[in-house]
Amino acid sequence: MATPMNGRRFYGDPTIYALSTAPGRAAIAIIRISGSACKDIYHSLCPGQKPLKPRYAAVRTLYRPWAKPSPDNLLDSSALVLYFPAPKTVTGEDLLELHVHGGTAVVRAVLAAISQCSSAPGAIRYAEAGEFTRRAFMNDRLDLTQVEALGDTLSANTEQQRRLSVRGTTNNLSIRYESWRKMLLAARGELEALIDFSEDQHFDESPSELASSVADQVQDLVLLIDTHRRNAMRGELLRNGIAISLLGAPNAGKSSLLNRIVGREAAIVSQEAGTTRDVVEVGIDLGGYLCRLGDTAGLRSAVLATAKAQQEHMQEKISMIEEEGMRRAKQRAIESDVVIAVLSLELEGKKVVLKPDQEVIDTAAELAEQKSNVLVVLNKIDLLSGHASELENFRRQVADALPHVRLENIFAISCRDAEIFTAPDAGHIPSFLSGLIRQFEDMTSAVAATDDDTDASIWQESLGATERHRLLLDECQFHLEQFLGQVEAGTQNTEDSGLEEIDVDIVLAAENLRDAANCLARITGKGEAGDVEEVLGVVFEKFCVGK
Ligand SMILES: Nc1nc2c(ncn2[C@@H]2O[C@H](COP(=O)(O)OP(=O)(O)OP(=O)(O)O)[C@@H](O)[C@H]2O)c(=O)[nH]1
């Protein structure tokens, strides 16, 4: 059944068909058929009608197969039919497209008719999920990186996911991986020539010169791969969503802010401190970025009491449940891509004060020092009515307490004003959101390989690399570093012992280059058959029937 084609298994039989548009009532439904029986199916459904001109749309009447073309046997009175001959088709096989009227009964009747077009059992069957794309891959019409990008395109929900996946459907990523692989294979070839011919042939370079020039090339490649991996991680933020944590003292207004951002009452807001005990997570599209926004339990120092307890001169102990809530809040913040520390102004008698809890400040300061991903919002600025000039002082106080947070990342807001008023920037929430989206842009734009490399746009496509690519690149980098370590140690030995010949185990070094090249081949699907089959299952899981 299977015949070899371009070194891969050719998926010639059986012919597959499927409804490629969404099921349900619609103006038009498109049925795709791929395989060697396309022409036979056409002649069975459109008996006596003109042959199709390849790649031209034609209007045809569809009848039940093997039946007289009479009104009784009519399936669809006018369908648009297109025929694409192999091999330059989306699947690499003959392809027939039937654009029929989108009524459920019409579609069902045409699908049933297609399955009856051949008397040979199993020659024509309904396609499995992703089978058209699988055939495109098997017939070299798409490589694995393009297949993955296609899967992402189909599941893209936000604008940024769409942009990322559409970029990946070109084969630029594969071209890059292939060029790296070829470079490694050439380097390996040079090294192996040393083993095979060094005894009886003269080389322009001495063995040690050759080893160090190969090491220089490999070193450059390691830098490129490392940049590519960093960009892949940035792309993963777009694909998987940016995790955001709201961190702050009880009653600072975390739940109120979450509700203002989401635009609905996703979290409970209450005057009672400690309302949020566990992480409340909401998925949201912010400016085209998929985000997972988490409201967390309030953080407070053990010695500090709530406002009510303070007034009554008593201290509240932190219960075990609250302690667990705080632990989860901190853990979630550590694991998040962005942390929003919510501080609030409070009324002390008639005076408005900023009394941030030390636990919140310490946690935010530590996070800001480790990664520059902390934004601060100073909430409840409506309490300042009439004393708005004091706001700058409060902002400065926050900046002093959190020196690693940039001043432009400290925002003053009022969740209450945002709730009550309808003005475009009520409560300054939209200004804060613009700042948040700027942070997303910074985190997800491509980085260049070196500081001198000012044009990061050539790295743009690296954002489309998937987690699978990144893991294989990690493995590739490991082998390259092994190689560099061997050359370095060998060169050192040569120098120390005054040897003329380089003391590097060339066989082992070449083996590392081979393993590194193989990792790159596995990314594009040009690896060994077993590897390819293994990833195919994972990649095609995402696909729907008809794609
Ligand atoms: N004046 C004023 N009050 C606010 C503002 N934002 C929130 N509040 C009030 O502050 C109180 C606490 O708000 P929440 O949003 O529940 O605070 P929280 O940080 O989620 O509290 P916990 O769940 O206890 O951690 C509620 O009574 C809110 O109405 C604001 O901008 N101005």
Question: How would you explain this protein's 3D organization?
Answer:
- With 547 residues, this protein is of the alpha/beta class.
- Helix content is 45%, strand content 16%.
- A hairpin with an 8-residue loop joins strand 3 (15-19) and strand 4.
- Helix 6 (172-197) packs antiparallel against helix 16 (506-524) and helix 7 packs antiparallel against helix 15 (467-497).
- The longest helix has 34 residues, at 207-240.
- It starts with a strand and ends in a 7-residue tail after the last helix.
- 39% of the residues are buried.
- Residues 1-12 have low confidence and may be disordered.
- Residues 248, 250-256, 269-271, 273-276, 298, 379-380, 382-383, 414-416 line the site of guanosine-5'-triphosphate (GTP).
- One of its GO terms (cellular component) is mitochondrion.
- This is p-loop containing nucleoside triphosphate hydrolase protein.
